Amino acid sequence: MFRIPHFYRIEMSFEEAREFLTSYGGLLEGLERVQKAWNDHCASPDRYSDDDFFDQWRYEVNAFNVVSASMRPLFA
Fold it and tell me: Measured between alpha carbons, how far is 65 from 2 in angstroms, rounded to an integer?
């Protein structure tokens, strides 16, 4: 789950989040792509600010959180 600054939070349903992430080739692929983007951002020596990251990836990280929260009971 991402700790998204309040300014970048977007309310969306599970269906909207699923649709958005599956546009990257599948639900799992979408989740992995968002996680990789964050990991790359954190590891980059020339990294831009977290605000810039959330501005660029706001829909993806919000969709990631919605899907992750919905799937959490499956892995408990």
Answer: 7
What φ, ψ does residue 9 adopt, rounded to 5°? -75, 140
Q: For residue range 14-73, list pLDDT tens digits in order.
A: 999 999 999 999 999 999 999 999 999 999 888 789 999 999 999 999 999 999 999 888
Give CA separation, 52 vs 13, 32, 48, in Å.
25, 20, 6
- Helix, strand, coil percentages (3-state) for the chain, rounded to 5, are 70, 0, 30
The model's pTM is: 0.90
The tokens describing 75, both together, are: 């892995």
Q: How far is CA 20 from CA 37, 48, 49, 75, in A?
A: 16, 25, 24, 22
